[in-house]
Amino acid sequence: MTEEVQQQKSKLPLILAAGALVLAAAGGGWWYLEQQKAVQVEMTAESVVPTKALVKKPVFLPLTKFVLSVKGDDRLHYLMLELSIMSYQEASLKELEDYMPVIRNAVITKLSEKHYKDLAEQGSIATLQTELRQHLVSVMSEMSSTNGIDKVLITKMVVQ
Fold first, then answer.
1. How many CB atoms are located within 10 Å of the residue 69 CB?
2. pTM score of the predicted model
3. Element spanning 68, H or E
4. Under 8 Å CB-to-CB from 55, ≥6 apart: which residues?
């Protein structure tokens, strides 16, 4: 019997070491997964903010008061609009100032194609901002090597 008791005693430290090893592995695995979740949350938070916004502060070029007539079904309507061009490149906005007559002409040309219904409907501002940006980028690509237009913001709009 003494040999049997000794064999059980000699297995006890081995069983305890194996149990400790399993607990340590489980704890390490849990810690690793928690760290990965934290990294994912940080990456998600960073991806919400545009990388350009993290690097530089945007600069704005205001385009004051456009007043023009737009076609309606039965009569002419008037549109009063003010815009700002947003860019993360200050040098590009300085260059855009040199092309101000071209920019104003491009805006007026694009707006003159619009119908009253297009401008008066719900959600038209977001659509108009996107269209104006695309049109200005196209026009400036023909005129200059850089356009620097990251966004076109409508700061005031009255349609009557």
1. 13
2. 0.62
3. strand 59-71
4. 88
